[in-house]
Amino acid sequence: MNIGIIGATGYGGVELYRILANHRYVENIHLYTSSAEKKSYIDEYPHLSHIKENELKPLEPDQIKEENDVVFLATPSGISASLTPELLDDQLKIIDLSGDLRLKNSDDYEKWYKKAPAPEMLLQEAVYGLTELYREDIKNAKILANPGCYPTATLLGLAPLVREKIVKENSIIVDAKSGVSGAGRNASLATSFVEIQDNFKIYKVHQHQHIPEIEQELHKWDEKVGFISFSTHLVPMTRGIMATMYIELLEEWNTSKLVDLYESFYKHSPFVRVRTNGTFPSTKEVYGSNYCDIGLAFDQRTSRLTVVSVIDNLMKGAAGQAVQNFNIMSGFQENEGLNFLPVYP
Amino acid sequence: MNIGIIGATGYGGVELYRILANHRYVENIHLYTSSAEKKSYIDEYPHLSHIKENELKPLEPDQIKEENDVVFLATPSGISASLTPELLDDQLKIIDLSGDLRLKNSDDYEKWYKKAPAPEMLLQEAVYGLTELYREDIKNAKILANPGCYPTATLLGLAPLVREKIVKENSIIVDAKSGVSGAGRNASLATSFVEIQDNFKIYKVHQHQHIPEIEQELHKWDEKVGFISFSTHLVPMTRGIMATMYIELLEEWNTSKLVDLYESFYKHSPFVRVRTNGTFPSTKEVYGSNYCDIGLAFDQRTSRLTVVSVIDNLMKGAAGQAVQNFNIMSGFQENEGLNFLPVYP
Amino acid sequence: MNIGIIGATGYGGVELYRILANHRYVENIHLYTSSAEKKSYIDEYPHLSHIKENELKPLEPDQIKEENDVVFLATPSGISASLTPELLDDQLKIIDLSGDLRLKNSDDYEKWYKKAPAPEMLLQEAVYGLTELYREDIKNAKILANPGCYPTATLLGLAPLVREKIVKENSIIVDAKSGVSGAGRNASLATSFVEIQDNFKIYKVHQHQHIPEIEQELHKWDEKVGFISFSTHLVPMTRGIMATMYIELLEEWNTSKLVDLYESFYKHSPFVRVRTNGTFPSTKEVYGSNYCDIGLAFDQRTSRLTVVSVIDNLMKGAAGQAVQNFNIMSGFQENEGLNFLPVYP
Amino acid sequence: MNIGIIGATGYGGVELYRILANHRYVENIHLYTSSAEKKSYIDEYPHLSHIKENELKPLEPDQIKEENDVVFLATPSGISASLTPELLDDQLKIIDLSGDLRLKNSDDYEKWYKKAPAPEMLLQEAVYGLTELYREDIKNAKILANPGCYPTATLLGLAPLVREKIVKENSIIVDAKSGVSGAGRNASLATSFVEIQDNFKIYKVHQHQHIPEIEQELHKWDEKVGFISFSTHLVPMTRGIMATMYIELLEEWNTSKLVDLYESFYKHSPFVRVRTNGTFPSTKEVYGSNYCDIGLAFDQRTSRLTVVSVIDNLMKGAAGQAVQNFNIMSGFQENEGLNFLPVYP
Question: According to its UniProt record, which residues of this chain constitute the active site (chains A, B, C, D) (predicted)?
Answer without folding.
Answer: 149
